[in-house]
Amino acid sequence: MKFIHIDKENSIAFYQQIMSSIEKAIKEKKLLRNDKLPSVNKICIEHKISRDTVLLAYEKLKKKGVVKSIRAKGYYVRTEDFNFDERYFLLFDELNIFKEDLLNSFLKGLAGKVQVDTFFHHFDPAMFSKLISDNMGNYSKYIILAANVEGVESSIARLPKNDVYIIDQMRNSLKIYSGIYQNFVENIYTAMESVLDLLQKYNRYILIFPGHKEPYDMVTGFEKFCREHGKNYSVIPDLKNFKLRKGQVFLIPNDRQLVETIEKCNHHHLVIGEDIGIISYNETPLKKVVQNGITTLSTDFSEMGKKLAQMVLKNERKLIENKCTLNLRKSL
User: Which of 203, 214, 259, 273 satisfies CB 3.0 to 4.6 Å to 330 for a cystine?
Assistant: First the structure.
């Protein structure tokens, strides 16, 4: 059944005519999901056009999510539903309330103009690599939160550089791409320096850093502050075998450790904000009321999602640091 029609007298580009023919055939149910499309060579011979023209049509249809390619087999219909001009690949580490805020704001900013497919690598390097490999060429934009997964550079490098955006956590090796991110080193240093007068009553500075999911730049920023201001400090993975004493102040990235710290303070009758100081990473509504208020250091994930949507829709190529705010409360 012949369904690709090219009118060489028409001013519409040949590749666009190929795309329109295939999309029309799908809409008219002449092509169904997983049906094989004519080979590149067959179309070239039948219509006396170049391979590059046919490949361009197929690649654009791939980015729209209409077709898929299978190595050594050819091109196939991917879906019969294609109401979007573009499809974005969004790769998160995991879903939590902060990523949910980012995602919802991003989708709102896109205003239904784009289909977004969301994936999760769960800090697994093999899963990260597989998700990139399986989806190469199928999307017009690739938005990636690599987190602290090692060795991602080679996988990301396989994607078109101008279609890649790195979000939330950045590293020097990924700054060749556009994106929006937190500057953990600068944010922690600046935030702690801004409350130096309140921190003076503490004689021991402690970062609880499990290191499984948290960005190592947190350690760098914390140690930079402590060294430059002559503070006695420690970086510990958890509170196991650690004795709380009056005069300690904690920077806590993980909410599980925050709860444990509060429980231990209450158990040992240590008053938070007087005997023990706490700065928790990432704002939540609950932290405004727990223990009369927990001081937080947090970026605005909703703002990050909003700015990201603006960047990708305008195809802007730049790096943006997302603002971070210290919300001072009684825990300090």
Answer: 273
Q: What is the pTM of this model?
A: 0.79
3-state secondary structure of 193: helix
Q: How confident is the model at residue 84 (pLDDT cuts 50, 70, 90)?
A: low
In whole angstroms, give the CA distance from residue 66 to residue 19: 10
Contact indicator for 328, 298 with CB cutoff of 8 Å:
no
Strands in the chain per DSSP E: 67-70, 74-77, 86-92, 114-120, 141-144, 164-169, 178-182, 204-208, 233-236, 248-252, 276-281, 295-299, 319-321, 324-327
The 3-state DSSP class for residue 95 equals: coil
Query: Do 213 and 118 belong to one domain?
Result: no
Q: What is the pLDDT of residues 117-148, one digit of tens each?
A: 999 999 999 999 999 998 887 788 999 999 99
Handedness of CA 68, 137, 61, 89 (dihedral sign): positive
What is the pLDDT, as a whole number, of residue 229?
97
At residue 258, does pLDDT exceed 90?
yes
User: Do 73 and 126 share a domain, yes or no?
Assistant: no
Q: Which residues contact 296 (CB under 8 A, 6 or more apart)?
A: 279, 280, 281, 282, 283, 284, 287, 326, 327, 329
Q: Check whether 219 has a pLDDT greater than 90.
A: yes
Tokens of 240: 């196991």
118 occurs within a structural domain? yes
Q: Which domain range does residue 284 map to?
A: 185-299
